[in-house]
Batch of 3 targets.
Target 1
Amino acid sequence: MIDTKLTTNGRVSTESHTPAKAKSLDLAGSRMTYSRLIGALFLVGFLTYGVGSGLVTSLVGGSNFLSTIAASQTILVIGAFLMFLNTGVDVAKGVLFFPILEKHSKRTALAYLATMIVEVVLLSIGVLALLLIVPLAKHAGEAGAQTLGAILVQTNATAYQMGEMTLGVGAVFLCLLLFRTQLIPRWLAISGLIGYPVLVAGTIAEIFGLHIGLYLTIPGFFFELVLPFWLFFKGFKPAAYQGV
């Protein structure tokens, strides 16, 4: 296809738009669309789960929290809903990542998507445990109610740690593929390769009662904070994406 247009000196110039060039433009647009969506989802996930978890923790952090839930159950439900909303965000990330990763390694794409699904199931179990506190609060004065409430809170905490452990394993495979294909800078992929095994170690420590997981999330947090901004402003590396 050849377009004609008038130049500043009055002459007619022609510009050729070959099918290859059009395809290249389409790929570039698709690359930025996917990368920006994935980057935005990372940030939305941070926001929804972080705010939701903060609301819930403010209510169930005390030793006799069950007696105060009845007056603040709306806050608990909103917090749990925000935490549950994060599960939808995680599924969306896995789905959007899949067609990009599949072009380079279908096995890795399936493994990452599978770990995301397992994480979502575990996080959903944790949220369900939190929501069960609402009807339990009506029996706060009965024997064993506070103990059962503490078990429900711990169920959510354990489900979260197991979900993060599963996701961490899948993310290692993701970062290996990103490093090999250079869809993102290798220094960023390396930060994930360092951060996620440390994260997995932290979740295992928390499950065994060693409360050091918060500190061990820092390396992985760096990757998950820098990656969305890189994807939003730079996107996946064009040469690596178009070369598949």
Target 2
Amino acid sequence: VVQWPGGGVQSYADFAADRLYTITQGWQDAGPAGSRPPAEQPPLPLYGPSLATGDVIHRENAYDDFARQPLLPNKLSRLGPALAVGDVNGDGREDLFAGGAAGAPGRLFLNKSGRYVGVEGSPLEGDRAAEDMGALFLDADRDGDLDLYVAGGGYEFEEDADELRDRLYLNDGKGNFQQAPETALPEARDSGSCVVACDFDRDGDLDLFVGGRVIPGRYPLSPNSRLLRNDSTPGTVRFADVTDSLAPGLRESGLVTGALWSDADHDGWPDLLVAHEWGPIKVYRNAEGTLQDRTAESGTGELLGWWNGITGRDLDGDGDIDYVVTNFGLNTKYHATPGKPARLYYGDFDGSGKPRLVEAEYEGETLFPIRGKSCSTAAMPHLANKFGSFRAFAMAELQEIYTPQCLEDSHTFEAKVLESGVLLNDGAGHFRFQPLPRIAQISPAFGVKLTELNGDGHPDLYLVQNFFSPQIETGRMDGGVSQAFLGKGDGRFVPLEPSRSGLVVPGDAMSLVVTDLDGDRRPDFVVGINDDQALAFRQQGERHGGTVQVRLQGAPGNPTAVGARVGVVLEDGHRQTAEVYAGDGYLGQSSPVLTFGIPPGESLRQIDVRWPDGSESTSTPDPSQKIIEIRKGS
């Protein structure tokens, strides 16, 4: 029996063995006339493709990362693009910035009736030599409009190259940007990753965390990450590097891939959670303006992985914020457990004075190198003399190849957890890790968002997958097409098949943002794909319940109330809790408008807001409104 996607059904019998049969779809009433009732029309998927991003195209530059570090596990020059959304010209529509690769400038797109139209003549074009990584819209100069911060990154450049500088572009309020004076940002030339904003010191403006991704040519040593405090005054824009004085240990946090400002311990001050490759999800507690590393106490210290993205929302209805973190998954050649981790060594293994990389993993109780004889001897020719045959190399244990002393003297990194999963919060900033369902593990996952898909009042999840740029022996990790999940309200998720969600992304998907493409007050998605056109999906199908959106209005310096916590309470007492973020997931900044579900038969009782300065308010909204705007102090 074959049931076709359009609902038609055909039946056959009496097949012979050892034959290949080709079945061609027939008429809609497939089969003898009147032999079965017409097939029921399947429901419309929740999402459908949109033409909004037809001009949003990312083009990579050609660069051989492996010529620079021959045993590099993955390319580090193909990790974009970043996406950021915000209303830059005050017309009520959310516009888009898409980061560019080296040689291709990032571009600003205005939302014109649901389609992104590129802005020509932007000062961004003058920075085409740089590689864009994290990008963020924020009110840097406290004039009430959205400026643009772009983190420089990439692997193509020399250390301290000018192309690695971060850039700040100031908005005149009409969507026209000009580059800020050089004095606006501290002197730094690091290959960065994400940039996320929050008012960590409660002085009314937005401060920044800029993650360091890699030191070009010296992977996996820790690059510089930075905490930038906004010290701007009327007429003067200035960010100061306060990392060493206010966040001890943060500068050399590790290979940062993603970060999130969020009040993890429910004390009213935004904490900083940082995802790493070859490291944990670090938790820096905000002690009234000073960041303290509390990773060990949080329970995430042993969750060493190849983490990519992080986002948050209350997933189990207890009022605190839980988190979803994306990882490389279980469908690759790599295998790691807490007892038998994957390992990476970085040291001088041949006496040349030049550090090399050695990957290793356990087979049984013994460590063996992951890379074979050909590539290993090409990087370290002395091995050819030590092992005259491929069999001899393949049979040798790791310490027989590189000697125990060389391994002991090298820098050692471990990965113990490769699943994407949920960090369930006990309310005090202590976490329990719970892997996502198996379908989330079939390919590396990057961008991730929590929002309301079906209107049942339980937060839902969408993540994008795949990685096309590992070293050649590994091959593409392309088993995913992205995956949506419906939340159960207790921290667990149920996969939603692509035919029901309508969300299919087979490419090298990186960033993911939520926005409202067409002004229908429902959450839509834009996906940034490496070296390809971005994809957009518009919500279209019927939902279990309804939704309500909440938009907060703060003061100049933080006009979208980044860092606020919103609690939506229904008449039956059910509470949904979310925070307003400026930067989350992987290289993404989504809309500050939050979407909540209203199940059938339910109505909205009140909305509680804890504002970024710690003050609180309660509103009784008009239930007929699809979007509720709450102004601080109103």
Target 3
Amino acid sequence: MYLNHYKLKEYPFSLTCEEKYFYESSVHREALGNMLYAVQQRKGMVLITGEVGAGKSFMGTMLCSRLGPGCQTVILQNPPDSKKQLLRSFARHLGIPTAGAMDKGVLEENLQEYLVRMHSRGRLVGLILDEAQDLNQAALKEIRLIWNWEQNGQRLVQIVLVGQPELRERLLEPKWEPLRQRIVLSYHLPSLTAEDTTAYIYHRLRIASENQETVEFRPEALSLIHSATDGIPRLINIVCDNALLVGYVKGVHCIDPAMVTEVLRDMTCWGLQTSKEEIGAGRSPAGE
């Protein structure tokens, strides 16, 4: 709706995970670099956690992309609810036939044969499990068993667990110690700092406008967006998208604190935290 008004080629704050929009803060750069090393060198299991909307799934997508064609990476975005479903989903994504009546033993055998072939060709196979906090006990146990598959002392599958903070808490339970001991790299994605929030917003605008400066956010508006969203990328996207819509309706190209406040008033259903003073005054504390 507002593309022509701001001379944008596409919507900059879409919630889809397009690689070109990935904002690489120093924390993200370090995490990605270490994850790549751990997977490529077959060092051990990797754990990524973060709050809802912090960009965990995007990190998994970027890891898959950075691993490149030398690693056949499978991302399971919907947690399997049984051992057999986990094996079947993994096999299907690898292109291994999975007949409906095939039992768990046959699935395991077919998977291991395939993985041994890939290993003999020098190819890595990665398994990224998104929303892993929702895995049931049976599926989580199966992950540990899959991790144990090896050939000539090397693991056949490199596993990355991606989930919300409760996954980390769950793995601290004594019964999951055997799985926890296999995790060699663990990252919790923090929310963006105020500085990174500003850089994140302008990064997305530059991509959508092909490096043309077609829209501006006032510093006070940026400060208000950060405090209201707590630096959570998904919430930043939602607020900014709606703020651009308000700017379009008003016929302006500069987003000020009053416009952001107008958006926040209509978005209480998202649980955004702003003080009554901020909403009432239409400015952030930094702008007072």
